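Re: that chain you flagged

S.,

Sorry for the slow reply, it's been a week of failed gels. I finally had a moment to sit down with the sequence you sent. For the record, here it is as I used it:
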Amino acid sequence: MIFLSDWIFPTGYRFWKYLNRIFPTIKFFITTYDKPWYEFVRTNYLNTNQCWKCFEIYAGRSKKGFTIPVVKEIKGPGNNDHLDYFIQTAENYHNSGDNKAAGVYLRSAFEAILKQFCFGKVTIKFVVDQSTLKADEFWGATKKFITSYPRPANYNLTLNTKNEIDNLLPLVLNLLNHNDINKNEHSSEIGRTINTLKTLKLELQV
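Prediction finished late last night. Pasting the structure tokens below so you have them in one place:
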């Protein structure tokens, strides 16, 4: 049993792979307080290894006001559970009539799909703070990449899905994440977005 802190990824990734090869029966525990780092590693480094288990621990409150640990098991890094969670939560909010909340989760799903697809193969413009990059920029880079390298074996972005995303970006994926009282929220467009993102996830194989 070996405990590793968050320094091991990504700079120490080769060292960890070496340990895993030399000691294949040893259990590794990697811990971190850094949520963005955790999501990055879980999505991009652990998603091909089904033996990994991920747990998230939060500080909850008992009925008497005491702090208690809340442990959530995240089902397998390879299952893209965070994408499924975003889309399913958006669908639940949509079904309950909360279009604003549905839009927020759809935007999160859209960004997660694109970032996972772009990782390691699609060129994105350099900025010091990557959090400032907009989903539109990832979408533009994705379309440019697919145009340059059309239809390899591992993905197939159809023209219909591309056109649907282009149409829905200003109507749902951008609009509902801002406070704009001059724009209408159309339930049918949110339903279309849910279905389109499910298709996009499959076509990009993320």
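What I noticed first: The radius of gyration is 19 Å.

Talk soon,
D.
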